[in-house]
Amino acid sequence: MTFCMENLSPGDRYRILASLVTPRPIAWVTTQDSDGTLNAAPFSFFNVFGSNPPIVAFAPGNKDRHTPKDTARNIRENQEFVVHMVDEPLGQIMVDTSATLPHGQSELQNTELTTLPSQKIKVPRIAEAPVALECTEHSTLEIGANRLVIGIVHYVHVRDGLMDEKGYLQESSYFPLARMASPDWYARTRDQFEIPRPD
Prior knowledge:
The protein is of the alpha+beta class. The chain has one domain: Electron Transport, Fmn-binding Protein, Chain A (Pnp Oxidase, Chain A), CATH 2.30.110. It has 3 helices and 12 strands; from the N terminus they run αβββββαβαββββββ. It has helices at 10-20, 70-78, 91-96; strands spanning 24-25, 27-32, 38-43, 46-51, 54-58, 80-85, 115-116, 125-126, 131-143, 146-158, 178-179, 186-187. The strands form 3 sheets. The protein has a 7-stranded antiparallel sheet with strand order 3-2-6-9-10-5-4, covered by helices on one side. The chain has a 3-stranded antiparallel sheet with strand order 1-11-12, with no helix packed on it. Strands 7-8 form a two-stranded antiparallel ribbon. The N and C termini lie far apart (38 Å). 26% of the residues are buried.
């Protein structure tokens, strides 16, 4: 099969690309508006893209054709956000925070999640997440109806037991969820294997 993307609707393009380019990591992003209301939302168009400086990027869409989601609006206002990785126990609550709420209403208010202050930025982080990346906005690219937020990572908070003192991952302790086919599919990462690189 071959799909000509120019002849498809944006929704069809999304479904095809989001179903085939998998697995993808999930960015569970917290931001804060000018009134101090905390927003939390997941995004699966996300990854890490460099280490010098350390950068991540994710793509928050719009609520409708002309209204940015609260995450993008908040980053535009204060240039700060925290990206959390999601493991299996947090899967359902992460999906729950993807519900559309009125502007100014926090997705975390009806959950049992707790927050902790960040080191450098005002936006708090989710205490239960296995990994939290404190970020400031480097830039935001707008290409058509797409928005790509590029952030510089300043602090990385890691749950005790996931890494050793030198920053090497303990593979038997960290099992993030991965995003699979659109609209509702995910993958566990417990079945991992090693393929050594050549010298």
